[in-house]
Predict the structure.
Amino acid sequence: MANKSQQITATADSIACIRDEHKMLREQVRRFVDEQVKPRAEGWEESGMVPRETLRQMGELGFFGIRYPEEYGGSAMDTLATAVLAEELGRSTFGGFSVTVLVHTDMASPHLMHAGSAEQLRRWMPKIISGECITAVAVTEPDAGSDVASMRSSARREGDSYVLNGTKTFITNGVHADLYFVAAKTNPTSRGAHGISMFAVEKGTPGFSVSRALKKQGWLCSDTAELAFDNVRVPADQRIGEENRGFYSIMRNFQNERLVLGAMAMGESLAAIDITLEYVRNRKAFGGVLWDKQAIRQRLAMLAAKVEAGRQLIYSTAWLDAQKFDCVKQVSMVKAYWGELVNQVTYDCLQFHGGMGYMRESTIERMARDARVHAFGGGATEVMLEEVAKRMV
Ligand SMILES: Cc1cc2nc3c(=O)[nH]c(=O)nc-3n(C[C@H](O)[C@H](O)[C@H](O)COP(=O)(O)OP(=O)(O)OC[C@H]3O[C@@H](n4cnc5c(N)ncnc54)[C@H](O)[C@@H]3O)c2cc1C
C-alpha cells in the first residue's frame, strides 16, 4: 500500500508514456526552479525581466537544446520532453519566467531549426542552445492577431537584400532578444496566406528598433515589446525557408507553441491547487479549518479531476506528435482546454484564499493575473475550438 506522500508523488508519474530520460529531465528542471527561480523571481517581476545570467545558466545545463540535434549542442529528445519542461516551468508559479524561456526554446527558435539552411543552423543554433543568443518571434501586428494572414509588414527584394517595413506588437522577449524571427509579406499582391516569408533579424540592424516596452496585467518578468522596421535591409541569406511559404511554417510551429502553452498552464494549475490545499488545510474558520467545508473540498476535488484529465490529454498529444501523427485537432483541444481551465483553477483557488488571495504578497494573486493571457495568447480559445470543430465533421 502506498502511503499518502507516495500517492501525491505518484501523480507526477501517472503518465504511461513517460520514460526514465523524461523523469530525469523533470527532476533537473524542478531542482533548478526550486533553487534558482523561486527564491529570486519576485525581484525579476519588479525589474520586468529575467536576468541574462539565469538564461545562460539554463543554456549551460542543457535546457535550451532538449529537442535539438547533438551536433549543435542539443540532446535530441522528443515532444514528451518539451511537455515535461513546460510543465515544470509552469510549476514555478512565475508565468513571466516560464514564457521567457519557452518562447526562446519552443516558439521562436523552432522557426530556424525547421526551415533554416545548413549555414544558418551552424551560424545560430549553437548560441541559441547555449543561451548566448536569445530569440523572439514577431508575427502579431496591431491589425493582425488571430488573423495572421492579414499582416501588412512587407519585405521587398532589392538585389541581394530584402527591405523590411512595418510594425509588430505584443512580442515576447521583444526588448532583450538578440535574434528575431520576423514574418513579412514578400508578395504584396497575393492575398491571405500566400506571400508571407520569415526572416532572421539581428538586434542592432539599422532601421530596426524597439519602439515601446509594453506594460501588462501579468507575466511581469517577461518583457513584451512593440517593434518598428523602417527600411531595414536584411541580407537575402537571412530569409528562413522558402520565399512566400512563411505562413505554412508559422502554422506548423504554432502546433508546438500551443502544446507548450497548454503544458505550462497545466503546471501552473497543479501548483495553484497545491498552494491552495496547503492554505485551506491551515486556515482556521468556524471552529475548524476551511478544508472541513465540503463545498471547498469538493470544488478542489473536481478541479483536480479536470487537471488530471487535461494532463493526460497533453501527454497523449505529445506522444502522438513524437510518433509523427497528425494531431492538429488534439493540439487545438489542448490549447482551448487549458486556456480556460487554468483560469478556472486560479479563479477558484484565489477565492479560497479570500482577502489574502487579493493581496500582491500572495502567490495565487500573481498566478491568477498571469493565467488570463492563456485564453487568447498564442491562439484564442474561440479560434482553437474552430480548429477542433473543422475536424469533427
Ligand atoms: C503577453 C503576450 C505575449 C505575446 N507574445 C507574442 C509573441 O512573442 N509573438 C507574436 O507574434 N505574438 C505574440 N502575442 C500575440 C498573441 O498571440 C495574440 O494576442 C493572439 O494571437 C490574439 O490576437 P489579438 O490579440 O490581436 O486578438 P484578436 O485577433 O483581435 O481577437 C480578439 C478576441 O476576439 C475573439 N476572436 C478572434 N478570432 C475569432 C474567431 N475566429 N472566432 C471567434 N472569436 C474570435 C477572441 O476572443 C479573441 O481573444 C502575445 C500576446 C500577449 C498578450
